[in-house]
Write a structure and sequence with these properties.
With 77 residues, this protein is mostly helical. The chain contains three helices and no strands. Bound molecules: zinc ion. The site of zinc ion (ZN) has 8 residues, from helix 3.
Amino acid sequence: MMQGSERLLEAAEHSVALERDARLAAIRANLREQGEDVCVTCDEPIEAERRAAMPSAARCVECQRAYERMQQRARND
Ligand SMILES: [Zn+2]
């Protein structure tokens, strides 16, 4: 009996996690469709401060930094 209810609990937790993942995916897809600022590299929302400073920013600070480093290296070659 105990084992059975544990398994039920596990199944419930699993479906909650699945539901949450699906909701997150839907929110992200929605954000992209609306042209909201989600980093094109890592898919994370770009900080409000950064968006205010640079409305055209396509990447979050970290990815932008990495991108610029990459470009610099390409120029140096
Ligand atoms: Zn990023």
